[in-house]
Structures are given as structure tokens and as C-alpha cells.
Design brief:
about 30% helix, 6-stranded mixed β-sheet, 23 helices, about 800 residues, Aminopeptidase
């Protein structure tokens, strides 16, 4: 009897708890889909669910955004699984070592990586509720991890904007203001970065914090929820070609399995969808590819809508697309994904273990050497990905040499970095480090080259043999005596570490010179750009030596003491060739016609990478700004047309002529050059006079001949020019398009010569002809001022480490 009463009491208690669980609509006070839920309200609902059903839901805050909004994860499963959650996780991770199969399917659902693709976060709340009620059977053998909003800052930017500008209650007319979000859209995060392109590069705080948790689980299935144009039907797996060659047969097959299950539900509702088009699995930094390269079934789901859709909008077919529709579609694919994983958990766990078995990749080890600061920077990224690395004592390495593009045996210095494929992250290593990823189709959704040795400006050898390693050690800064008797202190100049060191010195009020010519002192050679910090220049700085010591130690910088300014060879420290680094006041243009992403890269670079102040000036009011108070103005890439020239060009020309420095990047160059503009000229291309007819079905493939889809090119560098201080005579540039500009007399710093074949990635045959003998980086004098042209973008997505010093040189050295 006692047992019966206890069981009855337990049942009644469980029933009482279940009755307390509110649906999203009941909790929020409005039907889901009739308003955009603000992020704090989403978090509140997840907290409500976790507090109401603590035995089945665990909620954690894994970080915060730049605007201090919480980033949360919800772990959902059966009571028994939740009691054993840590054991299940540990058991699952053992499968990456080939020991055992995991016992449960691990499904990770990521929502709202683009802030104005807002339907998915709404859908996540419905999915959570349904999994805990009607679909709880899915959780018996499955752990579901839900990230309801990867990009809270962008989501709230959009939802707050929409609530301000929408009609009441709303209008479906696509011409209404509520369907035209404007320049500062909610798509990106605080710094205007696209978080869906940052999984591999980890430049953003959201990405770094999320990946720590992702690596603790490495799920079997990862679904990334998106939206596309309002006229597009729903997209789900399987993905389009090209698939990277490391994608396994099982990963391909299981995408089809999931897609067919989705189709079953969509067919029953009469909903339209498409598969195997547009969205490929190649570029490694997406929310579908990065998980795939770590063993998951990685997928993108795309619903028509985005910021243009609002609560409801008329599409081109005359049909009304509502937020409720968009939510229903994401809700359906989310549940379908968990259902398929649950039904196939045995196969998922077995194949996941197989993914991590020894890989027979062509290259077994990647040996990198060169700039030690860049190697140290790369190890920081490797640590974040939990990729193992080491160094070798060998003086030679045999294999394919990246910059020489040939096989052989090569001498390598003692300071080197080795990343091998005899580790659990072997597939990711191959994808990130291989010289040139194999491309099965030239029509892709993103860039086609990213090899990290090129991105970090390092020499590299891909070896077909496993290279033995020992521990890699970052070199500590040499200890020196910061004596008042020293005449000067000298620092090298060849990395972003040096740039941050300089930035900090300037902000601490320490005056710094730089050498415009190489010199030798006390038998040691110094390159152009070397920093010279003299006692005399800082005589009025009360804490000069203490400050210099603190800053150098904080930046792990080795300085050399100079007891004289009389050099052995080159120019003495008092020469006109040893100039003062200007403590430049810098501004950057925002708003139309700049690209939000390209503006964001500049903004993020100053605040999070260089740590140097920058003023953001919007195009709406720049004509009222006194530009004479600024030394440098940066024009990020964008769509600059005749209107820009008409409104701004005369003002900019006067400012430059009076001594200003204008840095024009990418598309901005078109807005300041040409007739009545500055001097850089677009390259004239001879057109074939023979008339040709293109087959309609092949038009896009014909057009691709004129395209460069993010390929790497070897460029020549005039490293005697201040814009190229810290570089050798070659630079590997990531080129994003076919823009082509002629050389400038005595001002072309980096350029493509006769050889136009990319070292990695795709470039069409006609595009290669177009960029022959063209400028990459250049500078010209205009009156008292300077024009710096950056045809290629060294700050692209924040990951092309080797190009960033060109940008810093433009700020401080090119005077």
C-alpha cells in the first residue's frame, strides 16, 4: 500500500509539474508569430522551461555578446539521460578515439545566426515545447542541444527596428518602410561581421565562446537555421555541389535520408522546397561545413523571408508570406531532424566513430616556418580548435613547398611549427592546411581558397610522411636592462604583434621613430620599418622607462638597447630617413555607399585587433564634418557610384591636397578614380570583336570565366616602399573579384605580373587575362597628401593575418 501511495504521489507530482509548463504563446502573452520576440523574452522562456522541468532540461549561459546579451544553450532529453548527461558526453567523445560507439544520438540545433533571419528563434521555442510534450519519445535515445539565438545583438537590432517602423498592425505591401531595413541591418553582429562565415576563423567573441562548448560535444547532427529571399521556397538537405572531398559517403547519404523525411512532411502540407542547389559544402567556416569537417551531418536550412518579410509580405507570385508560415517550416524541419536522428542513432554513432578512424590523406604533416610572431598567432587559433601541433628538430623537410609550388627537400630553421593528421582533428587539419582544396564544381557559394599557411604569411611544406615532433614553445621576450643611460631601444617590425606594441606606445604618450632604410648597429642588421624609441624624444615623459618596460612585457616584445645613434651602416638616428611615427587621428566612413561587412572589418580591426582609436563618420553628415581635424580617412569597400563622386569627391580632393591621407579599399576605388577623380586608372581590356552566341543553359558557366571566387595569387612586392615595410619581395593575396587597375609610376607596391594563375582557388580564364600586370596595393602623392589604394582587402573577414601589416603601414609608415 505504501508503495502504491508513493507511486501515486510521484505521478501526481509529475503531472503537476507538467501542468505548470507553459507553451511559448501562453508564456509570452501573444501567439507566436504575431510579434517579434525580443531576445530577453526568449531567454526568459527558456529559463521558465528549465525551471519548470529541471529533470529534463538544463540551461547554461556560455558567454555574452559585445553588447552584453547572454548566449545560452539548452540541453534536452529524457530524465534518465539528463541524470547521466556527463557520462553520455564522455562516452560519446571516446568514439573520436575509436574506442567505443556512443550510446545516444547528439543533435545540435543552431538558430538565428543572422539577426534579421528571425523566424528560427521563434520556431526554436515551439520546437523546445513540442520535444518536451508530444514528441518526448524522440528523446529516449537522443540528446538535443539548442542554441536559440547565436546572434542576439543582430536579432534585437532588427526586432527593435521593426517594432519602431512597422505599420499597425502591419502591412503586406513590400514598398512600405517596414520591409526596407536600411544600411545598419540586423543581419550581422555588433561589429557587422557575418557569424556564419566565422566558424573556422573565430574572429568574433560569439564564435569563440560557442566553439568551446561545441568541442565539448562534437554532435552527430548539426542543423543551422537561416532565411533567404521572400520569393524563394524552403531549402533543406542534401546540399549542392561542390562537396569537399573529405565529406564521407555516409555524410552524403544521411543528408538524403534527412531530406526525404523533411519532404514527407512538406509534401503532406503542399509546401514548396528545393534541394541540391545553391548551398554547397565547401568553404570551411560555415555552420554546415565546419561541423561536417568534425564528423557531423552538417546542414543549412533556408526559409524564404529575412528582414524584408516582416510579419507578412506579398511576394512576386502575389501570395502572402507570414511570419507564422516561416516559423511553421522551421519548426517542422527541426522536429524532423531530431526524429531522423532518433530513429537512426545506432548508425549515427557507428559512422561517427568511423569518421575519426585513421585517415589516409596524401599529406601527413604540414611543416611551417618563417615569421615567429605569425606562427605564435596561428597556434592561438589551433588551440581554440583543439588541434594538436608541435615542432621538429630536423633541419630539412621533404614534400610540396607552397611558395615554390614544387616538390623537393628543403632546409628549415629550428623555429618551426608542425601540424600532422595523426590526431582526431585530422580532417579539419587537411581542410585548413592543404595547399589547394580540390574543387568539383567551379560554381560555388563562397571563396574557394583559404589555406592557413598563405593566410598567416608562412613558408610551408606539405609532407607525405609523418614528421616526428616535440613540444612547440613560444619564445619569451629577452630580458634587458631599461637603463637611463641607453640612447635608444629598437624593435623589429614585421607582424601584428609589433603593430599592437606600437599602438600601445603611442597611446601611452611615448614617441616612436621608424627607419625608412635598413641599417646595421653593433654588428646587427635591422630592416626598414624598425621602430626606434629614443630617450631624447621622450625626455618630457615622466615615466618613460617604466612605461616602456610595462608595455614591452605586456606584449612579449624583445627590444635591443642602442647606446648610440651612430650606426655602422645606413642612416643615423637623427637622419631625415628616420621619421617620427605620427600619432594619427583616424576616421572611417560608414553608411551608404559602404558595405556593412567591409565597414565592420575596419571597425573591428581598430577596436579588437590593433587596439587603436577610430572615429566613425556616417555618410549622412560627413559633408558637415571638418575633415582637417583628421589625419587619415578610410573608405571601406562598397558600391560607390556617380552620386558619391558628385556629393563628396571635391571635398575629399581638397582635404587630401592639404595633407590628408585617404585609404580607399576595394569598391571605394571606383568612387574616387576615373574622370575628374584621383590618378589610379582601371585597366583597359581588349574585347574580342568576334560575335558569339551563348547557349542559354550554359550562360552561368560562361559567366564564371570572368569571375574570381576568392582565390590566392602570388604578388610581387616593392618592399623598399613604406607601405610594404615588414614584407619580403612576395605576398600571397586573397583576391575576391576581377577588379583590375593599371600600375602607378613610383607608387605600385604590390602587383600581379605576367603570371596570373592562382596558387589556390578558382579564377576564370577571362578574369586571369584581365588581372595580368595590375595593381594590388599602391600609393600616390596628391598635393601635400597621400592616396593609398587597396584593390584587394587585407582585412577580409579578419582572418588574412599576413595582409594586415599593409593596412597598418598605410596608417603609420606611408607618410
Amino acid at each position: 500500500m505504501k508503495h502504491f501511495l508513493f507511486a501515486l504521489a510521484l505521478l501526481l507530482s509529475m503531472s503537476s509539474v507538467a501542468q505548470k509548463l507553459q507553451s511559448p504563446s501562453a508564456f509570452l502573452g501573444y501567439p507566436v508569430g504575431t510579434q517579434f520576440t525580443r531576445h530577453y523574452e526568449v531567454v526568459a522562456y527558456y529559463k521558465h522551461v528549465a525551471e519548470t522541468m529541471p529533470s529534463r532540461v538544463q540551461l547554461i549561459e556560455y558567454g555574452q555578446t559585445n553588447e552584453r546579451r547572454p548566449l545560452i544553450l539548452a540541453y534536452i532529453s529524457s530524465e534518465e539521460n539528463m541524470r547521466n548527461l556527463e557520462h553520455i558526453r564522455q562516452e560519446h567523445l571516446k568514439s573520436t578515439l575509436g574506442d567505443v560507439n556512443g550510446s545516444k544520438a547528439i543533435v545540435w540545433l543552431s538558430y538565428n545566426v543572422h539577426g534579421n533571419e528571425s523566424a528560427s528563434t521563434e520556431a526554436s521555442m515551439l520546437t523546445l515545447y513540442e520535444l518536451l510534450t508530444a514528441k518526448s519519445s524522440y528523446l529516449e535515445n537522443t540528446i538535443v542541444i539548442m542554441d536559440p539565438c547565436i546572434n542576439p545583438d543582430g536579432r534585437d537590432r532588427y526586432s527593435n527596428w521593426y517594432n519602431q517602423y512597422k505599420n499597425t498592425p502591419y502591412t503586406v505591401d513590400p514598398n512600405s518602410k517596414e520591409h526596407h531595413e536600411g544600411w545598419w541591418s540586423g543581419r550581422s553582429n555588433h561589429y557587422m561581421f557575418d557569424l556564419n562565415r566565422d566558424w573556422a576563423w573565430l574572429t568574433q567573441i560569439e564564435s569563440r565562446q560557442r566553439l568551446k562548448k561545441y568541442n565539448q560535444w562534437l554532435p552527430h547532427v548539426h542543423a543551422d537555421f537561416h532565411e533567404q529571399g521572400v520569393d524563394d521556397p524552403y531549402f533543406f538537405a542534401p546540399a549542392a555541389e561542390p562537396f569537399h572531398e573529405v565529406i564521407t559517403d555516409f555524410q552524403r547519404k544521411f543528408q538524403v535520408t534527412i531530406g526525404k523525411n523533411h519532404a514527407r512532411y512538406f509534401d503532406a502540407k503542399g509546401w514548396f522546397y528545393f534541394t541540391k542547389e545553391v548551398y554547397d559544402l565547401f568553404y570551411p567556416s560555415y555552420g554546415d561545413t565546419y561541423p561536417s569537417y568534425n564528423g557531423a551531418i552538417g546542414m543549412t536550412y533556408e526559409q524564404g523571408g529575412s528582414g524584408h518579410a516582416g510579419l507578412a509580405v506579398i511576394n512576386n507570385l502575389g501570395d502572402t508570406l507570414t511570419l507564422k508560415d516561416r516559423i511553421a517550416h522551421h519548426y517542422t524541419t527541426g522536429l524532423s531532424t531530431v526524429e531522423v536522428a532518433s530513429k537512426n542513432f545506432s548508425e549515427l554513432t557507428e559512422e561517427f566513430k568511423n569518421f575519426y578512424k585513421n585517415k589516409n590523406y596524401k599529406y601527413k604533416s604540414y611543416v611551417l616556418y618563417g615569421n615567429t610572431d605569425n606562427m605564435d598567432a596561428l597556434t592561438t587559433l589551433l588551440d581554440q580548435h583543439e588541434i594538436q601541433y608541435g615542432a621538429t628538430n630536423s633541419s630539412t623537410a621533404k614534400g610540396y613547398h607552397y611558395s615554390r609550388a614544387k616538390n623537393g627537400s628543403y632546409r628549415i630553421p629550428k623555429e618551426n611549427l608542425v601540424i600532422s593528421t595523426n590526431q582526431s582533428k585530422a580532417t579539419l587539419v587537411k581542410v585548413l592546411f592543404e595547399p589547394n582544396a580540390k574543387l568539383s564544381d567551379s560554381i560555388t557559394y563562397d571563396i574557394t581558397a583559404w589555406s592557413l599557411p598563405f593566410a598567416y604569411g608562412l613558408e610551408a611544406i606539405a609532407s607525405e610522411s609523418l614528421v616526428s615532433t616535440e613540444a612547440y614553445r613560444k619564445a619569451p621576450a629577452e630580458q634587458i636592462a631599461y637603463s637611463e643611460n641607453a640612447y635608444a631601444f629598437i624593435s623589429d617590425w614585421n607582424s601584428m604583434k609589433d603593430a599592437r606594441f606600437l599602438s600601445r606606445l603611442l597611446q601611452k604618450g611615448i614617441r616612436v621613430r621608424y627607419a625608412k632604410k635598413p641599417f646595421t648597429l653593433d654588428g646587427k642588421s635591422y630592416d626598414s620599418g624598425s621602430l626606434i624609441i629614443t630617450k631624447a624624444d621622450n625626455a618630457k615623459h615622466q615615466d618613460f622607462l617604466a612605461t616602456l618596460k610595462t608595455v614591452s612585457e605586456d606584449h612579449n616584445k624583445s627590444l635591443t638597447i642602442a647606446n648610440t645613434g651612430f650606426v655602422d651602416e645606413g642612416k643615423d638616428f637623427g637622419s631625415q630617413y628616420v621619421e617620427m611615427v605620427p600619432n594619427s587621428k583616424v576616421a572611417v566612413l560608414s553608411g551608404e555607399p559602404t558595405s556593412t561587412l567591409r565597414f565592420g572589418e575596419v571597425w573591428h580591426f581598430f577596436e579588437q585587433q590593433l587596439n587603436y582609436p577610430v572615429t566613425v563618420i556616417d555618410s549622412d553628415y560627413i559633408r558637415q564634418v571638418d575633415l582637417s581635424t583628421y589625419d587619415v580617412l578610410i573608405l571601406p569597400s562598397g558600391t560607390y557610384g556617380d552620386r558619391f563622386k558628385e556629393r563628396y569627391l571635391d571635398k575629399l580632393k581638397v582635404w587630401v591636397n592639404n595633407g590628408g591621407k585617404l585609404i580607399a579599399m576595394g569598391g571605394a576605388i571606383k568612387g574616387i578614380t576615373g574622370e575628374n577623380g584621383f590618378g589610379l586608372a582601371a585597366k583597359e581590356i581588349e574585347k574580342d570583336s568576334a560575335a558569339q552566341v551563348s547557349i542559354y543553359d550554359q550562360t552561368r558557366r560562361e559567366q564564371i570565366k570572368n569571375s574570381i571566387t576568392g582565390a590566392i595569387f602570388k604578388t610581387n612586392v616593392d618592399n623598399t616602399h613604406p607601405l610594404a615595410f615588414g614584407y619580403s619581395d612576395t605576398y600571397f593575396s586573397l583576391k575576391l573579384g576581377n577588379s583590375a587597375y593599371a600600375f602607378i609610376d613610383e607608387g605600385t607596391v604590390s602587383y600581379i605580373g605576367d603570371s596570373t594563375e592562382p596558387v589556390a582557388g578558382f579564377a576564370g580564364s577571362e578574369a586571369q587575362k584581365r588581372i595580368k600586370n595590375t595593381t594590388v596595393f599602391a600609393m600616390e602623392q596628391h598635393g601635400k597628401g597621400k592616396l593609398v589604394y587597396m584593390v584587394d582587402n587585407p582585412l577580409f573577414r579578419g582572418f588574412w593575418e599576413s595582409g594586415k601589416l599593409f593596412f597598418v603601414n598605410a596608417l603609420f609608415m606611408a607618410n
